[in-house]
Amino acid sequence: MDHEKIVFGLDIGTTKIVCIAGKLNEFGKLEVVGVGRSKSLGVKRGIVNNIMQTVESINHAVEIVKEKYSLNIDSVCTGIAGQHIRSLQHSDYISRENPEKFIDRQDIQKLHNNVKKLILLPGEEIIHVLAQEYKIDGESDIMEPEGMHGRRLEANFHIVAGQTAAIKNISRCVVTSGLKINALNLEPLASADAVLSPEEKEAGVVLVDIGGGTTDVAIFKDGIIRHTAVIPFGGNVITEDIKEGCSIIEKDAERLKVRFGSALPSENKDNEIVSIPGLRGGEHKEISLKNLSEIIKARVEEIIDQVYRQVTSYGFQEGKNKLIAGIVLTGGGAQLKHIKQLTEYITGMPTRIGYANEHLSKNTLEEISNPSFATSVGLVLRGLKVNNFEDIKDEQDQNYLNEKNSSTFFEKWSKKFLQYLLNE
Questions:
Q1: What is the pTM of this model?
Q2: Would you give the DSSP letter of residue 278?
Q3: CB 3.0-4.6 Å disulfide test: which of 47, 194, 242, 313 passes with 377?
Q4: Which CATH number fits domain 86-164: 1.10.10.10, 3.40.50.300, 3.30.1490.110, 3.40.50.2300?
Q5: Which residues does residue 219 pair with via DSSP β-bridges, in sequence order?
Q6: pLDDT of residue 374
Q7: Alpha-carbon distance 171 to 169, whole Å?
Q8: Burial class of residue 193, CB neighbours in 10 A (0-12, 13-18, 19+)
Q9: pLDDT digit string (tens) for 265-302?
């Protein structure tokens, strides 16, 4: 494994665009060697609505990495989100001619290719095909079918689909910026790689990534992705509500939210006031922090209610679906004061704030472990996974491999490397 290979993650968000350069150190931790960020000008609710503005923002973030850190960028691992994303469950199978022959990678790939032929809604295409469990001749709960015998190989799949036009617009922005796309990933899956532990995924956990334009949800159980959803609003609607409710400009509303905002009005005293400078030397405006918190709480409750609806539709109260690890909040919106407590109150589920610390090397800038960088870090981690399996050409096969555990990764990589040496 080439520890010196640098991979670039490009997070095209609604409020900011981040380019992160990273490599694996000798301990298998991510060492961030460059970061550039810019204000996102052409993206609304996770969807590109102005190509040239988005390209300009991408170029700005990429140029910072190139110039400040003297790095050459030719390809990136980027993410996709937005209200057009939907997920569905699907079962498929293949019949094998020779049941005595071992099930191999080609059989699994053939099954995955069958799923790609699934007829979706007009204008949609498949982004991810994620195997949840396999069955061989009716025997269920098989996680790794390779090397086993059987005639009928079937699987339950979690399929993530999105609008072709939205996917092409993201691709066009990246290509117009002079970059190639190394891999395209659903953003909540990238965020999950950054902030969730294998133990949490095994026990059952809900990842909630509160971005500027969308709130992404991913549910894991038994180490497998079980449900994904994109809620079409995030932190920006909170800012908009503050702007309207306090009759102030958007810039001041965002500052108020970040510096003084809280999701629990009861934590503010009645006499706590903050003064906002007037426009063009006009009179200062006084804002009650309790009123500010009331505005914030109303919108955060709406977001968490939508999240809880997704969790309920998964059926988390059933024994086998129980989500022992509760909820992990990440993204820029997770930095809002007291959002953890409000989430626990609404859902009754244990909640923590998700940082990317576990996967980052010790000498990484503290800023990068911030929840708002979770997706960016996750995209680099996913890019490193793809990079270590360059001999696998098919994108869906890469996605299949990416969902497996690291020990299986290493075993297979070691076998392939040994085979390579023997053939020399």
A1: 0.85
A2: P
A3: 194
A4: 3.30.1490.110
A5: 206, 227
A6: 94
A7: 5
A8: buried
A9: 999 888 889 988 877 767 788 999 999 999 999 999 99
